[in-house]
Prior knowledge:
The protein is an alpha+beta fold. The protein has helices at about 30-40, 80-90, 115-120, 160-180, and strands spanning about 15, 20-25, 55, 60-65, 70-75, 95-100, 105-110, 135-140, 145-150, 155-160. It has four helices and ten strands, in the order E-E-H-E-E-E-H-E-E-H-E-E-E-H.
Amino acid sequence: MADRVVRDGPAVTVTLCPPRGRINLRGDAGDPAFTAGVAGVVGAEPPPVANTGRSEAEAVVLWLGPDEWLIEVAAAAEAETTVQLGNALADLHGSVVAVGDGHVTLSVSGPRSLDVLAKGMTLDLGPGRFPAGRCARSLLAKVPVLLHRPGEQRLYEITVARSFSDYALHWLQDAALEYLQPG
């Protein structure tokens, strides 16, 4: 007799997240004036460690490269935050560009979320290799994405260019089908 798995919820859930404000930030993380300026506006310094993020109540700052970060804020706060960052960093080398309308965030959650992502992504997402707070640029089913694991639970956020968002959402939903079937 096969063992039955009792679940409190679905094995995997794929959803479209509400719109977010996104700001691409470039600058020198080694410059104390730069890090202080960013922290003064969004509440968190840009993380200097590759593929990590920092979260505060109002913002998430994700590492994209040695001198590049993505700042996520409430959609309604994007324009104001962009202006405030521009003013705070005006005398420093760098750039601040609002990019929120160009991207969409999808979420994959649940105990089988890793199985779904593994179907289209080559990253090792095991807890020891991709712990909470990690982010990475990668491909998901041939689409460039930014993957972020915001917390300890099995929740992964996938930021994708708006032009690929329908494809990515439908691909994830299709990849999740086998885990939604009654067994």
